[in-house]
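Allow me, if you will, to draw on your knowledge of protein folds for a short while. I have a record of one protein: its chain in single-letter code and its fold written as discrete structure tokens. Kindly check, if you would, that the fold set down in the tokens agrees with what the sequence suggests. Thank you for your consideration; the sequence and its tokens are set out here:
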Amino acid sequence: MRPRALLAVVAVLVVAAGVILFATTRGGASDPDVRTSEQRIEVSGGPGVAAPVSLDTTLYLPARTPAPAVLVAHGFGGSKASVDADARDLAARGYVALSWSARGFGTSGGQIALDSPDYEVADARSLIDWLAQRPEVALDGPGDPRVGVTGGSYGGALSLLLAGYDKRVDALAPVITWNDLGQALFPDATGTPPPGDTPAARTFGTDGVFKRGWAGVFFSAGASTAQSAQASVLGRGNTGSDDATAGTGQAQDAPPAATGPGQDAAPQTPPGTPLTCGRFTAQVCAAYTEAATTGRISPATADLLRRSSPVSVTDRITAPTLIVQGEQDTLFGLDQADANARQIAAAGGTVRVVWYAGGHDGGAPGNSVRDDIAEWFDHYLTRTGPAPSSGFAYAVQSGVRAGASTPTGRTIVADAYPGLPGNAPVTTQQLRLTGAPQDVVNPAGGNPAAITSLPGLGGSLGSLAGRLSAFTSELPGQSAQFRTEPFTESTTLAGSTRVTLTVARSPGQPAGAEAVLFGKISTLSADGRRVLLGSSVAPMRVPVPADGSAATVTVTLPAVVAPVQAGDRLLVSVSTTDQGYTPANDPAVWRIGLADTGAPAALTVPSVPGRAVTENTVPVGYLVGIGVILAGALLAWLVARALRRRRLAPEPDPAALPLEIHGLAKTYKGGFTAVRDVSFEVRPGMVLGLLGPNGAGKTTVLRMLMGLIRPTAGTMRAFGEPIGPGAPVLARIGAFVEGPGFLPHLSGADNLRLYWAATGRPPADAHVEDALAIAGLGSSVDRKVGAYSQGMRQRLAIAQAMLGLPELLLLDEPTNGLDPPQIHAMREVLRRYAADGRTVLVSSHLLAEVEQTCTHVVVMHKGLVVADGTVDDIIAGGGAASFTVDEPAQAAEVLTGLDGVRDVAVDGTLVHAELNGMPRAAAVQALVTAGVGVQSAGPRRRLEDAFLQLVGEDATP
């Protein structure tokens, strides 16, 4: 394959995997109160550039202004379109948001200088100048807007650099970014770690191993635009200079797009730029060429990359900083966030650290992290939100999948990030390692090479990457391995492990100046299964004495978060090759052993004790342990907490209703009201259907009833006791939401027992057999869930909600994905459950099933209750009736003559009419008086007819 074609393939993979864009892909309608305007803002070209550069920007305005502003920066390879959803979310919360395509990207002019202070950082400072002139932006003083900045990866580093260079930044939230780009692209894991005892502190050497896989992905994202860019330049010139207007910070209208709607025009490269460089500056292009050909970092490249790194300014960042880093990230690991936190805190800055289960290999942050960022800005920009938690949060993934690529996990919160000034150091334990010295081969040219990860494809192609890693991460003869004893109890690694090794030339081998090695840490189960933690390696250059003696090095292994089960071992391996890095080319054989430090060789293992505060779902490509079931896991925690507090609760009132809701309302930050003034009651024995079109507020009501979110107003009581997060009464409520998630290798019965064990309640209280009998699974309960049909999984999920035989059962769309026979079976399940006086509340879109299953209905529309009553009452409410008569023609004439009656139609012996408020009894009396024999009379409408009349026929149920 030709080099240019290879670059194109890599670029396509980058875009397909979404690896270096900080872009969220959540859906949802945009807030109608958010207004946008497109404009081009001219900024200084920078040193050596005479003409200004035109930046393509979008301004997002909230419903109320003036308001604080937030700059939203995109990731490498993206444009302002990449962060549209994030900017809209911030505007919906009340912020003026400004996004822009950085120079060299999208339709902006200029060249890529890698977040240089002279170029990209200066551009962002000009954007702050521009915001200070806008009447919609709140000011702290003349020329000083109240402004925050956020972004991921490339945009995250810009956030930190901007805060270091411009004191007008009031708060920032950098995501999955670097501390020192030189150290990130040329890492070295040997030497003494920095002081402070933080969890992911890592040694930064001065001459590391080139991370050629990721660096190539970066370069290809810019270089692959060269041909189209040059074509544009030759055809119509550079808009970055031709569209210039006088003065920095002046806006002008954006030019028409050169491609289809919603797409960026072809980026343009200044004339004279070599095709091999794309839109990179000549300095960046030269640095990459040097590194790619030599595999080493020169002093000039180190200086260039350091100026583009937050490490150059962290000692002067004073704005409150929320650092978010991904645990699945082979590009910028947890060590980069650790360094940023240490350096900012050491200079007296306010710092909070969050690790989430994603990253460049695992995906963008989920809703909880986005909420953390928004609340950070709420407190420090609007100055109305509560003080953010100072605690350190990290995510622990499990091996349980809720879908094709969605494992479940839990979030752990500690009181503070260990090791920062004033905080306790990280907790460590010493584990004994065993293993004799071993000879490992470095093949000529470093090929074949081990494959531990595929840059950026851990999230999108995690299955492929995982299979490759399983077979090729340890090539025969290229790896020395050392292991711990089996763990006697489960634990969670959180941070960087360390080990001291010896490296020498194998006897009889020619002298060599240095060894290039790669340290790894894996879990090893009793059955021999091995999982490489984080899919990461720790590269190192080890100078080896020529006299045959051994070099002794302390190696800091990759920082990871991983559960280790009782019975598992930790496996430390040291290999000679890795596909993602530039190897040593000369063939060699190295002898690697454990250092004799006067005590048993030890592995220093970090952990961060904390409390589990939530269960979550994260899109990652690697499974690193075993955890709890997704569906209802958070509820299980709430139930367990409720039971611990139950002794403080009053005795239940036997006469209290199962559910009473009065004046319930929920308004989210930003002003969106999902529920307003909802009131209804549910009595024992009812099967109540909660109906409404999309957006009616049904799911919000259910989430409040389960104690997952707090209402803005109103009261909720179950069995006479208030409902809220952790309320004791939650132990009497069962719930099923968001689809079933089970361990496929366990039977249905074992899954239920495992789920119940997670609640902390006595096994005898589970009533597993009763729940299974109601669900009607029969002998299938003893089969593995992996062989279940969708209908069986749904019924097992209902049985899970029925564990403990709760007196109130809340079900959200329990028949989703079921065929008609399965729906019929589910209907019988719910009827049987309510038959003994229990109560069921069902949210559903299937109106025909609600009509046949439920006894009562509550209809919601636009956050309000528009109807409440029995199914028969709702159906009869419009007055449509049918009469079975002996003289249909005469009956039709009589009904047509009655005042207000309309739409009379004859259908055999049936006569249908819309009574329009007239009681059916009065219509029957009129028919009998006229001599028409009436055999029966009843309502004509279906529940669907009533529903459409209540919410409007244009609603989408």
